[in-house]
């Protein structure tokens, strides 16, 4: 019997994560070569598995040149074999594997594996959100925090939590480790599709930073920004971003 889309996404994310750990633990790759080796190995597994299990669906991967055929499909799998290559190579835990299915542009089904924590978070198995912290916590990039995120954090008195991959940041909100993930530094569809599917299923707010919905399987896979946060913070964060971007009178 074939697996459901959700089961398939979770299974593939988990297995790809195990493969990546084995590649890293093999000890045969230099630090410089490890990221590339992990990306290519995990991508090969995911692409072959999806083409075997869902041959009629479209496919978009960070590690595969897009030939445009995905645009003819309503159902498109969007994958990131290693989200946070630097963190993966440094044997940190804030990296992820993303496997998502977008249907008619909506991040419908997703799984985010956090192999360093032996966790897979799924869109079909939402759990209640943990209690929010009294002082909001905001996840930002370890190396290049977006100016608007820093500005919003200052405006609401949030504590900044530097973290690696986009998937790890988004799952920190799902897991109750932070309240807000605001990103304006540019990403691609594979960076956010699976995290957005999982976050939305858990009752979190997901949108562009101007409040518009996130739309996937676009001809240009670049996505300028996103907001994933607890629903009680959405309106205030969106308002602050709008005010910061509004031209002076």
TrEMBL record:
Protein name in UniProt: 3'(2'), 5'-bisphosphate nucleotidase
A Pfam short name: Inositol_P
One MF annotation (Gene Ontology) recorded for this entry: 3'(2'),5'-bisphosphate nucleotidase activity
Cross-referenced PANTHER family: 3'(2'),5'-BISPHOSPHATE NUCLEOTIDASE 1
Cofactor: Mg(2+)
One of the GO BP terms on file: sulfate assimilation
Enzyme Commission number(s): 3.1.3.7
UniProt binding sites for Mg(2+): 62, 80, 83, 191
Keyword terms, alphabetized: Hydrolase, Magnesium, Metal-binding
